[in-house]
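Q: Predict the assembly, please.
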Amino acid sequence: MSQVIPVEQLKSLTMSIYRYDPSVDEKPYMQDIVIEVPTDKDIMVLDALHLAKDQEPSLSYRRSCREGVCGSDGMNINGKNGLACVTPLSEVVKRNKLTIRPMPGLPVVRDLIVDMKQFFDQLEKVKPYLITNSDNPEIERTQSPEEREELDGLYECILCGCCSTSCPSFWWNPDKFLGPAALLQSWRFIADSRDEATEERLDALEDSFSLYRCHGIMNCVSVCPKGLNPTEAISNIRNKLINREK
Amino acid sequence: MVFDDLRNYNESALNALTKAISTKKVIEKDNRPVNLNLLTINLPIIGLSSILHRISGLAVFICFPLLVWLLSISLESEKRFSDLQNSFQEMVLFKLVIFLIFVGFIYHLLAGVKKLLSEVFGFGETLKSGSLLSWTVFGLTFVMSFMVLFKIFNL
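A: Predicted assembly structure:
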């Protein structure tokens, strides 16, 4: 934002940002920061955060690729989880106000940065990698185009955490319910024609919490910045669990 | 001998220290705030309908003994039955309570059918169809509640 913009093309926007610095603050609080945003073009929420940080250098948030690929800047924007870098202001600003909070349900490390340990612990449980028992083939494990197509809408997940942290079932049982992100990955490997551990994967999901805590609230689908559908993946696993022969 | 005592002492001191540090860590971890103010978090229509399904289920469950009690009164004798009928016709509050239980029951029933549709047949698992289904449940509840309202209040 170093480019100089003529004054008449700017308008002010009030950002209300969740602040918490464990070394100074007893409790988190909301801080209002007024920034000047251009009127002739749309900017992303992440750009707005940079403008706020110019005024308030202690403001902390994660960001890296700034184009919706790394999944670092998941946050709660005007009540809805999303990636700040791919969310334009025009989509979220209401009554000239933009409220930014950290992703719900996870412990806040500082400002908008949350500790994602619980999220990644759950991902680890579904073993998000190919498991094979058969001998390695000479060249590679091949898939037909149709088999590969099964993975569309699953492999694109960038693990930003927006879905799991918008899920009430995950809020109440973050240690027992795997959450939409981990379950989407679980289905990604169950659906993979090359994976040979389907039964073991399904066995691990048989208890009443891991998968069955999903009540179809579908907040995950409504927030996913990649437009994926964890609810559908969960329902696919459920059908497989119910229909398999024991 | 002395060395053994010293070693034991050192070990116990070390254990106490480790315990203190780990306890402190746990406390620090618990002290971290969590952003979970439900009033600030957007709830889409599908989520709202799912949560209302639970609330209405609980409410109807709690009111169920009341209905059983009323039924048992009405079955005691012909006189008790007509007494109950009269008080129902005269007391607006009585009618209102029965009406509200009906609304909760209708909503819970329809939302349950919706849940069955999505779990058994996979209906409403996209954002669009799910929202449509939720709106349909709300709409039908509204219409059926009005029908009950007309019936109960003899409008």
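Chain B touches chain A through 24 residues (CB under 8 Å). Residues 1-32 of chain B form one domain.
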